[in-house]
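User: Can you help me understand a structure? I only have the sequence.
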Amino acid sequence: MTRLARRKPLTAHVGVLGVGLDVYWDQFAGLRRTLMDHLGTLCTMIAAQGVDVTSFGMVDNAQAAYAVVPELQAARLDVLFVDMLTYATSATFGILIRELSIPVVLVALQPLSRLDYAEATIRMQLENDNICSLPEFAGVAVRMGRRVPPMVIGTLDGDARAEREICDWCRIARVLHDLKGARIGHFGHPIEAMLDMHTDQTALTAAFGLHIVQTELDDLVRSSRLVTEDQVAAKSAEILRVFDTPDPHSDPLTEKLTAQDLASAARMAVALDAFVDAYDLDGMAYYYKGEPGTDREHVAANLIVGNSLLCASGFPMCGESDLKTCVAMLIMDRLEIGGSFAEFHPMDFDDDFILVGHDGPHHLDIADGKPVIRSLTKYHGKPGSGASVEFKLREGPITMLGITSTYDGRFKFVIAEAESAPGLIPATGNTNTRGVFRPDAVTFLKRWLAEGPTHHFALGIGHEAATIKAVGDVLGIETVVVSA
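Assistant: Let's start by predicting it. Here is the structure, written out as tokens:
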């Protein structure tokens, strides 16, 4: 399928700060220079992950630690890596962990995989004393009222596990970068009877640093009236490049995509692009019923294709006014694992799996093959008719992220990993994936439900529970991984 360009490039602001002990420099000539070279190696490793890196040099005593704090705060970093270059007293770290409100990751990458014991020297030991201060730093973090920082431990060269952990923290940095200040549009209201959808928008700002922009469907209707026929033709051609349009199969509500539904979907996709630009949005959640036969009903009912194109360009678009799941979709997208709108569909008790999917919108980048559009003569449970998107996720590992609210008004991440299995899905114009859960579907479902989730969640590819849990941890959000 055609991969759509991102509306905004992925980025993050990452800092790197080395720590050491000033007493060593006069005792061992050249040691500091060698350690600074190691710091440069880490900076290069991090920059290769596609983030902006700022090095703050080395802090080797308490005075230097106090002096660097204003620089770190002014840099508006998303993540700070503290490079454990050699032993360092915790005075170099205590003030940092006390004053900084960003995630701090301790990195202890040893230049040698082991000392040359037959030729070992104190200087060699000091150059490889990367883990020596980790207990001291961990203990001081707790005494400062903070969590023990996450740690990357390994060797400086050729350590795939350490490099993967650094990569994951850079991915987390991109999530945090885009959550802060994100503008999530909203129009309409939650479906009245879906009590789990109702969300305190101030709480979203408090938890994630984002802003909910109250938009108006009238502006989208107005935008649709300004779309030209040339724009409709160009967007229709793009839609036909991205999607297949098969003949109907078993469901009498489905038809082969009609010219009228294609034109309506294309017009609304163009209008959506202009609407998003006008409000300077980074995501959106909506639901609007509308008076039957009006422009409002027609516009609100014909957004699914445009929504899915936006999702594939890094813009989470969420139906049923589900702001919480919109945030979950944004998190998954910035981790580059997709983030489709999903819920539980029927179970297969014979082959022990659960269909997971929804009637839109969906992240096209994680489809198994080319996604499909069908015309539906009616949308179940919602007003209107028109084009709808159908696909299943790529076969292999998948991850679910649900964001729910607790009795005291706090958010909670509910995460699980599963497998997308091969096999047919219903040809109904909805996404569906055969989700295989451990130890079995019924036991898993009971464990998931015991965490008090909403009925929606974001669905992505890969097994990413640990990375998403780290996002929840640094945001101070209760996070549960439902495991086998």
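Now, to help you interpret it: The chain has two domains: 13-178, 181-482. The longest helix spans residues 259-279. Let me know which part you'd like to focus on.
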